[in-house]
Each structure stands twice: as C-alpha cells, then as structure tokens.
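Chain A, query sequence.
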Amino acid sequence: MGRRRSSSEYKSMLATVRTFARGFDASHGYDARHVGAWAPGKKASLTRYFNEIHRLTFRPYTVYEPRQKKNLKAVQNFSQHAPHYPKIKVAFVPGIVKPEITVKKSGQVIARDKIHGVTKRTVLFNKIALITDTDVEIRRAIDADLESKAFRIMAGNFEIGNVYGRSVLPDTLNRLMARYDNTDKNNFYGNWLHGIIGYDFDDRNKFMDFNRELLKAKSDIKSERRSIRRKAQYEKYKIKKAALEAQFEARYQREKARKLARQKK
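Chain A, predicted structure.
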C-alpha cells in the first residue's frame, strides 16, 4: 500500500500528466476541484502514469510529438518507453538536443543530432530467438546496423552508459546474459535486455563531446531532483514542526487556564 498523498500533491501530478497524456480531464473523472471525490482507481491510474513520466524524464530528453500518429509507437519503442501506457501522447527521446527523426516504412527509427554529427539507430532483439538461439540472434541484430561505429545496450527504460565497438559487443552481451540467466528472478535478462543502440558519427572528437555532455546532463538532472526532494522533505519537516509547536502551545494554554481557575477558587 502506497503512502497517502494530499490533494495538492494529486493536483500537481495531474498538471504534469495532462501535459503529456490524454484521458485525464475532468470529463474522465479528474476534476481538480474535487480531488477528495476521486475513486481510488483514478488515483492509482494517475500515480502510475505520473511515475512512468517521471522515470522517462530522469535523463536528458526532448519531447517528440508525431505529425503522423502511426509513428508514435515506433518512436516510443526507440526511446525505451515501457509498454502498457497507451494514453501517453508523446515520446521522450533521449538526448541533449532535439534530433531530426525519421521513421522508415519498416518501423526503424533514425535520430540525427546535427550539432554533434551523431546518428542513432536501435535494433530490437527477438526475445524468443535471444533465449533459444542466442549467438545467431546477437549476430543478426549487429548485422542489421552496418553503418554504426559504436554501440550501447538497451536495458529496460535506459541505455547502459558504456560504449562498445562492433568486435567486442557479442562477448559483452554474452557475459551480461550469463550474469542474469536465472529465469526465476526478476533480473533475468529476458525481462530487460531489449536491444542495441548504434551510433554513427562524422567526427570521433565530436562523438566524445556528445558523450561527455550526455553524462553531465544526466548528473545535473540527478542533482536537481535530489535538491527538489530535500526541499520537499524540509517543507514537510517545517509543517510537522509547526503542528507540534501548536499542540504544545495549546496544551500550555490549557494548563495555564486550569491553574488560574484553581487559584480563583
């Protein structure tokens, strides 16, 4: 059971979710003037979407709004959105600048960062083939992107920070899978190893700059959220402290009044 939230917290969450998702208007049961009247299921659904958006924005990103609706799902997959959030109407594309995005007829997404001269492509694994015919599936995925010079690994909603060359990527993937090969555990690689991300670039130095800026942006977001969390905790502490002080003052005044009443007798 999650912690109880105040009406103001739900209103703040609602404002965020409405920006990026449909189906959270007053006509859908989300009247911000009457949060107390919301059904528990409404609160749970809002919380679930808020947490997903919060997770997807815990990295450098730009918001992609498709001109053609058919492209949204492909770009969300490219951006490592979790499944089962159909109300989200945008894609949170990882990156430090807004890329030029192309969606091919095959569904492959290509994102071009013109400032750094970096082109990003993803190749998704066939999960069944990855488990039953591992080496063949890894080779298929790598050979599906013959243009990229460097690769990252798609892990859940994020990409592993290390960059690998084409020649070492198969062994790296096999070692990673060997560490998480217990099908009975939640960290089984089949649950989170989604594919590979290929990077093509015009200039190696610019690609290194791109990676440095990416890591700095991630660190800045982490620091900012830590600061926001500390401020929120301090505000809660102040409210709790003021309430306790008010209780002590009220108790003191009652005792004082009783004392005066006894003296008058």
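Residues 180 and 187 are 6 Å apart (CA to CA). DSSP finds eight helices and eight strands in the chain.
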